[in-house]
Amino acid sequence: MAEVVTALREQAETCARMGSPMYAALLTRIAEDVADDGVCARVLRGHEHDPGPSALGLRLLGAVHRLVLSGEASGLARFYPSMGGSWALDAAWPHVLETLDSRGDDVRRFLGLPPQTNEVGRAAALMGGLQALTAARRMPIRLVELGASAGLNLLFDRYRFLGGEGDSVGPDDSPVVLDGASRGVHPAPGVRPEIRERCGCDVAPVDPTSEEGRLRVLSYVWPDQAERVERLRGALAIAGEEPVRVVTCTGSEALSSLRLVSGTTTEASSESSPFARLYFEPVRRTPGSPHEFLVVLQSWPGGARRILGSAPPHGLPMTWE
Q: Helix or strand or coil: residue 7?
């Protein structure tokens, strides 16, 4: 299990860097238990060679968090901030082990599922990018999201974005408020993108209108990051009022099925029906530079590629360039 121990410790370091001391401490303790061939090692047996990007530690903690959220791990709830509790590693640890021991089969079942982090904070990059696109093209948008999960970011224009330079956009009464959504000089302040159509695709879409779907996406939010939990719950409430279409297919299948609609921005290389690709991914500015989470807009005709800004992996704040 040496590979598992290494992966858990690396994930603990990542959580510490990204502002979750709870998960950093818990993953470190779990790694120690695996090294000692304890309860955690028994639960994780069979996953010794899972690839690093599959985030075994986060899948394990997501499975436990799901049990807490559903009321099936009541002894742990008082330690989970997402349930109004207060985190304390030493006090919580016996309850973590008891949950893993008694509900090991349930946890192992969820280990086989990919994490579904439908991070609402990333809507800041989407809004900023589509504001810039609208300012340049002045056309309504057909929005297609690849890897949409529960499709919550397709509803980005129902959220309220408050920028660091006084700019704001979105409904005043939205239950989702992204405070400090951006920094720097906004290239298109106050612009409101008009979404003519919206749909998403995912190889394993989640239904945000179902109890199971809500539990699924909430379980992967780090419980001690209260703002993320609150934003997600607000987005789920909006999705319950305004469901969006997320179809089961790969990204390449979705793109191959797109058809031109004159006067909107989707996929063509003509002035009347342009195509734009907006993405927020870890990429390099140059072949030798380090990876950064960049917000990039590329549009056709012409294929011009523009780096709009950068952001932390969870999306806030976006820093304009």
A: helix
Confidence of residue 268 (pLDDT cuts 50, 70, 90): low
Domain boundary among 93, 111, 129: 111
Domain that holds residue 6: 2-111
Note whether 144 and 43 are same-domain residues. Answer: no
Q: Please, where are the H alpha helices in the chain?
A: 2-17, 21-35, 39-44, 56-69, 74-77, 89-102, 104-111, 123-137, 211-219, 226-241, 251-256
Contacts 24+ apart (CB under 8 A), 81-84: 81/22, 81/223, 81/224, 81/226, 81/229, 82/218, 82/221, 82/223, 82/224, 82/226, 82/229, 83/223
The DSSP letter of residue 196 is E
User: DSSP assignment of 256-321, as one string?
Assistant: HT----TTSBBEEESSSSEEEEEEEEEEESSTTSPEEEEEEEEEETTTEEEEEEE--TT--SEEE-
| CB contact burial 145-181 (16+ within 10 A = b; e otherwise) | bbebbbbbbbbbbbbbbbbbeebbbbeeebbbbbeeb
Phi, psi of 80 (to 5 degrees): -100, 115
pTM of the predicted protein model: 0.91
Q: Are residues 238 and 212 in the same domain?
A: yes
Where among 61, 89, 111 does a domain terminate?
Answer: 111
Map tokens 């342009």 to a residue. Answer: 274
144-202: per-residue pLDDT in tens? Answer: 999 999 999 999 999 999 987 667 899 999 999 999 898 888 878 889 999 999 999 99
- The CA distance from 198 to 196, in Å, is 7
pLDDT in tens, 25-41: 999 999 999 999 999 99
Cβ(196)–Cβ(189) under 8 Å?
no
Q: Contact 58/115 with Cβ under 8 angstroms?
A: yes
Residues 166 and 50 in one domain: no
